[in-house]
Structure formats: structure tokens, C-alpha cells
Amino acid sequence: MPSLYNRVAGQSVERLAALSDGIFAVAMTLLVLDLHVPAREAIHSEHELWRVLVALSPSLIIFLMSVMTLGIFWVGQQTQLNHFAHADRNLSWIHISFLCVVCLVPFSTSLLAEFIQFRTALLVYWFNILLLGLTLFWSWSYATRRGFLADDTPEEIHPAVVRRIVIAQALYAGGAALCFLNTYYSIAAIVLVQLNYAIAPRFCWGIFSRKSEEKKM
Question: What is the pLDDT of residues 166-215, one digit of tens each?
Fold first, then answer.
């Protein structure tokens, strides 16, 4: 039987959300450190500046991709936390594990930006995304088994969350597999997946909302 301390520890969902916000903010800020302004003494004309900026564009794309990565997973975690009425020590540590993986995103981003043409760098980046998805899935599965969801949580939320994680990870895996052809194909595929999850749900939500209103009329 768990000790009294273990039974009462880590019950605050609000504090977990606060810790999450701070770590995501720091991780997103660290991403920009890989973008370096060209040295003033190396630039002598507009043409040279444009050439350096063009050479910097792959790093900028990786930066934007990672910002979307963190943004998507921040929304995913906050969606879960918003539906948790309770937590315990184990759930708190699951989310701390998730945040640990979040802290690795600046590293995997730097590795990919530096070695963008190497498959290993792309696979490390994808593995980082995979760990983010697995820990979120672990969190949701544990919380539902323990009965931590709020009483007013709609029944369709559980399959929706599971489906979103599984499908997204399958798409990311498919995109990562393209690195065996060309790493740039993988990056393009991952960006398209991210754009879908960052933008498409808004349009879908508007469509579904209109359909719901029509049914009520």
C-alpha cells in the first residue's frame, strides 16, 4: 500500500500546468539561438547579405518546424490537463517525463539544422517527436484508467484524443521514413503534417459547429 506521502503528493493539476508553461516557453526561446546574424565584417554589399540569408534559410525552416512541434504538443498537453479533475504522484511524474522530452527539442533541432542532409539527424528529430507522443498517450491512458477525468468530460473526448495521437504519430513516422530517399522530403512531409494539425482543426471546428447548429434548428 502506498505511503501517506505518496498518496497526497503531486495532486495539483494547476501547478503541473504552470510548470509546463514555463518549460515550453524556455524551450521555444532556446530554439532561436541557432539563428545567427551574419558577421558585419563579412558583408560588404546587398548581394552578399541576400546570399547569406538564403544560406540561412534551412536553419530558419527547422526553427519554424520546431516552434510548430512545441506548439502542437503544448496544445495537446493543455487539452489533457483541462480535462483532468485530479492527479496523483504517478501522473505528475509522467508529465515531468513529457517535459523532459520537451527539453530535448532544442538539441534535436540544433542537430538537424547542423546536419540537415544526414538521415541520422532527421531520425533523432523524429524520435524526439515519437517520445513526445508516447508520453502524452501514456498520460491520457493512465488518467482514464485511474478515473481522473472531470465528470463533465464528454464520452467522445477519449477516442478523439487517442485517435489524434495515434494518427499524428503514424503520419510523422511516414514522413520520417522519407529520409531514406532524401532528408528534405522528410522535412517537407513533417511540416505538412504540422500545418494540418495547427491550422486544419480550426476550419473543421467551424464546419462542425455549423452542422451542430443546423441540427438544433
Answer: 999 999 999 999 999 999 999 999 999 999 888 865 444 444 344 444 44
Domains detected in the chain: 4-216 (1.20.1070)
Per DSSP, the chain holds a count of helices (H) and strands (E) of 7, 0
Q: Are 16 and 80 in contact (CB under 8 A)?
A: no
pLDDT band, residue 54 (cuts 50/70/90): confident
Could you give the CA distance from residue 126 to residue 187 in angstroms, rounded to a whole number?
10
For residue range 149-158, list pLDDT tens digits in order. 888 888 888 9
At 135, which amino acid appears?
T
- Give the residue carrying C-alpha cell 464546419: 207
DSSP 53-76: HHHHHHHHHHHHHHHHHHHHHHHH
C-alpha cell recorded at residue 215: 441540427
